[in-house]
Amino acid sequence: MNPEISLREHQKNAVAHIIYGGNTLLAHEVGAGKTFEMVAAAMESKRLGLCSKPLFAVPNHLTEQWASEFLRLYPSANILVAKKKDFEPANRKKFCA
Fold this sequence. Notes:
The chain is built from four helices and no strands. By secondary structure, the chain is mostly helical. The radius of gyration is 15 Å and the shape is globular. The two termini are 29 Å apart. The mean pLDDT is 92.
């Protein structure tokens, strides 16, 4: 995790709740840090061996924003992000392969 970023207390609690609670709804208001909570929970779950390939399904117009936020929190993470051209019929099979 990026040492220049420290999660707020409610974000740390949300990450713990996601990891240990199983089923979690993050219903914070806009700007409260839900993206960082989900990213941190996914990476911690992977580190703990609870999952191997976390998947986030986000609206098409947010994929690149999510990728930049993900890499801001975990700069050395190896992630696969669908771009607009990957949704074209000719490129779907190649992307999913």
